[in-house]
Amino acid sequence: MSLLTQKLLFLCVLALLLMHNVIGFGTHHVNLINNLDNNLDLTVHCKSADDDLGVHLLHHGDTYGFTFRDKIIGNTQFYCSFQWTGEFHYFDVYIASEDSKRCDTCNWSITNPGPCRNTSQEGNVCFHWNK
To answer: Signal sequence: where (predicted)?
Structure first.
């Protein structure tokens, strides 16, 4: 096999691995804990452009977590819907351009007014729900 053929084959294999997110940047974890008032149950549904992680029911104090790798090409983003009695909200729990250096493990406390992220660098920071 010629050197040119070997290089083309290598590039094709690399492109396929990148497209299927086999090769990516760092591994990240997102943990969501139900800290709603009045011991309410929380229904969580998280997605990215490529993945639908399904619907999960969290009783008060329960945690749901998932692991993924940032893509080399594109911008990894996970967003979740949060639903409890009489309420329905969305929030971006991971945006690579903002979070890839901020947290390898992004811990989110889900509260009635909005989600709060806790990192060793920033401490506890709370946000408003997405509009």
So the answer is: 1-24
